[in-house]
Automatic annotation (TrEMBL):
This is Enoyl-CoA hydratase/isomerase family protein. InterPro entries: ClpP/crotonase-like_dom_sf, Enoyl-CoA_hydra/iso. It comes from Haloechinothrix salitolerans. PANTHER family: ENOYL-COA HYDRATASE, MITOCHONDRIAL, ENOYL-COA HYDRATASE-RELATED. Gene3D superfamilies: 2-enoyl-CoA Hydratase, Chain A, domain 1. Signal peptide: none annotated.
Length: 258
């Protein structure tokens, strides 16, 4: 067993070939800030280089998987394109890992949180999980590859419904639509995800990697174009008056995130 203390916002535990990577801002429902993005990428980079890690679970500590971008935090000034592309690198890194990644989603998986889950190879959801893509209603744009990955999972009509209306859907509905593989009791979520990861870790690693690469090959050829278009749209939307007003309302009343 090997446990490694992480940076402030992401924890990692490695046991018997399985790395459990946990978003760790529970006081903000693991809402995304630049530090979390940097810490998550660093942990994934570490895992990619470790031959003793054969499967990965991505989870969230506290009451939620990830409640999206933290709108109570001011948008950092400076290189907007670089900041957006840094968020997108989480998608790239999850998909590029040689190890299979299982998302263990509970509570809120909203906005960026839902995009993190979609970027994993498999998704296990707790009965209390809630998924949504609220960006359009806030005057924002998706940035984590959802414009490509979501239509592949649910079809273009359903994808537009989820992205345009931004409605929250429960775990069972998410499974019926093809967003998740399994729904389990909330108190069984992490154990189920780890058991699945152990099963994958017991298979020949080269064969598992080849399956992941083969399935993703056709997807990723178009994913890069989608990610670039998302950057363009995000740059167009992030400084509008509507976004400023939405962020102001979140800061005034407090929120769980996007």
């Amino acid at each position: 067993m090997a446990s490694v203390d992480s940076a402030r916002t992401v924890a990692i535990d490695i046991t018997d070939g399985v790395a459990v990577v946990s978003l760790d801002r529970p006081h903000r429902l693991n809402a995304v800030v630049p530090t979390l993005v940097d810490d998550l990428i660093a942990r994934l980079d570490e895992i990619a280089a470790r031959e003793d890690v054969r499967a990965v679970v991505l989870a969230g500590n506290g009451r939620a998987f990830c409640a999206g971008h933290d709108l109570k935090e001011s948008t950092p000034a400076g290189d907007s394109r670089g900041r957006i592309e840094r968020i997108q690198h989480v998608t790239r890194r999850l998909r590029a890992l040689p190890q299979p990644v299982i998302a263990a989603a509970h509570g809120y998986a909203i906005g960026a949180g839902a995009e993190f889950a979609l970027s994993c190879d498999l998704v296990v959801a707790a009965e209390d999980a809630v998924f949504a893509f609220p960006e359009a209603g806030l005057g924002l744009s998706v940035t984590g590859g959802a414009s490509r990955l979501l239509p592949l999972l649910v079809g273009p009509v359903r994808a537009k419904e989820l992205l345009l209306l931004g409605e929250r859907i429960g775990a069972q509905r998410a499974m019926e639509m093809g967003l998740v593989n399994r729904v389990v009791a909330t108190d069984e979520l992490r154990g189920t995800a780890v058991d699945m990861a152990r099963e994958l870790a017991g298979k020949p690693s080269y064969a598992v990697t080849l399956v992941k690469r083969a399935v993703d090959a056709g997807i990723d050829a178009s994913l890069e174009a989608a990610l670039e278009l998302e950057v363009t749209h995000a740059l167009l939307t992030e400084n509008t008056a509507h976004v400023a007003a939405s962020a102001g309302r979140f800061r005034e009343r407090g929120t769980e995130g996007t």
